[in-house]
# Entry
Amino acid sequence: MFTQLHPQTQTTALGLGTEGLVFGCDYNPEQWTYDTWVEDVALMREAGVNLVAINIFGWSHIEPSPGQYRFDDLDTIIDLLHSQGIGVNLGTGTASPPPWLTTRYPEALPQAADVTTRWPGGRQAYCPSSPVFRDLALRLVRATAERYGDHPAVRLWHVSNELGCHNALCYCDQSAAAFRRWLENRYGAIESLNAAWGTAFWSQRYSTWSEIQPPRTTLSFTNPMQTIDFHRFSSDEQLAQYRAEAEVVRQASSIPVTTNFMVTAHIENLDYWSWADDMDVIANDHYLDHRLDRPHVELSLAADTTRGLAQGEPWLLMEHSTSAVNWQPRNLAKKPGEMVRNTLTHIARGADGVCFFQWRASVKGSEKFHSALMPHAGTQSRVWDESVRLGALVGRLGELKGSRIVADVALVFSWENRWAADLDAHPTSDFSYLDQVHRLYGALWDLGITVDVVAPGAPLDGYSLVVVPSLYLVRDSEAEVVDSFVAQGGTALVTFFSGIVDETDGVRPGGYPGAFRRMLGVRADEFSPLAEGRVVALSDGSTGSLWSEPLELHGAETVTSYADGPLAGHPAVTTNRHGQGHAWYVSTVLEPASLATLVDSVATSAGVTRSRRVDPAHDTTTDSGTGHDVEIVRRTSGDQDWVFVLNHTDEAIAHDIEGYDLVTETALSGRVELAAGGTHVIRQNRKAS
# Structure
């Protein structure tokens, strides 16, 4: 049963054959000579690396022409790594097709929504519905798995790489045919599809399956359900590629199989809730996104979401960066200490392994300015020195292996809802689902509240509070889980544009917020989005923006009301007694301070446990969550705790702590100072404390 994500008696390890935590990297030996391989393997040992991902983009190297395999180099590098006690995360090699494949079979190339072809020269230049790509990829996987399926160095199989990163949506004729098959399997009868898609609108009724196309570029708005179903189909097509490769691997090997997810702000096209059960190990890639105001908070959200996908069990960070990436508009280098802090955030939030892209910085290609453990400057560099120190620290943290995270709060997050809520022809184009998720999560983060991220419909047993940001698309059964949770004594905080449509994007009649009306005790007969830049005053002296609603009270009580504009006097924030619990509703975008105050009040009333927080502005320790950009997270196993204190500020802070710091390898007691950008990992014994 999917219940609260932290059964304290369970300590499940990744099972990758390491004594402690995984400290690893991605390596591309095909870019280097044998002499460099020998040097690199020795330096990996020096850095503490114990798992290396190889053959990720190896297809053209090991199959230079159709059916002609050349495994000699792969044999050599695997044996070199094994000789030094370094495990292998072995890629199936299918992440990007070789030039000969798309030259011989140009029909395998993907097409954009305007049905123009996307050509080779980058990566993932294939249609995920292409039969010829699938057949040739599985032929390669079979040859690779049969050769290395029982090699003692191989600890993990890595299917493809970041599936759907570039080619998640393909609109070619092969994809169209596959889409039609998917729809027929989903709906059974064409009239069922017509009902679900609302094709009575704009004369879109279909008579046969053959008339249906992907949501290619149109002259006007596209049918929203056509778009939502195409996203569902496309996620399933990518998962089908994973399943096909994993099945071939498992026929030849008993080693765990996974692929690397992309749980991060800028990736949206795959519904990882539907993927998670197929993974032997949940693995994620994450890179700081400097297009966000507070990228380190998004990092925490990504880590908590990945832990949610793992249902609270340990997971693997397959990729992150030592410093700058190469693909953002401004690729900022990490400050001294930031690489350690980022790495420890992932570990604090459940990772039992942390790996980097990549080992040695490339000197050619699109990623040559992407940072690496071994930078262009070599071992005489700041990044290398920090990497070696980090490897030693991760080694010391091996005692955390299998420990868990305890959370009182669940945050409901849905990729499917993101596809639906962010569509066009909605009340305002200024709305972004992910923005609202970030706002609520950020408020909880600032208050020192650890969060489990859960799928819609996941049982909420054991939580004190569930937070539901703008869950526009929700099934009746999923809404009922939240309703029952509150009725049985829980607390829910729901924000605007929630409960509006069902799984067919059909609006629930009777007023908003639809599926949550009864639980929240409110009703609105229309939306009232605000003009660009407009704010409205609220009765508590704060302001709201983006959105408002003319709420009527149907059992709820007003917490804050609109103080000006056409909705003056109407409730803006409400609370409702529902059964044994309470449900709160926010009908506008509260300014950050006001949102923090509200979340603090709701969490306090729900009895939520929070970390002791540090206030850098006043150099004091507080229990109220006022410490800004100081992160405190606790991992636990039996009677042992490990408290992570991560100072994301440019100032030293002081806090009270008891225990042994695994970072500095010293015992700490009483009031201690943590340097600007510094970190503590404090071992504590709860029986002794």
Observations:
- Residues 224-252 form the longest helix (29 residues).
- The first strand starts at residue 22 and ends at 26.
- The radius of gyration is 26 Å.
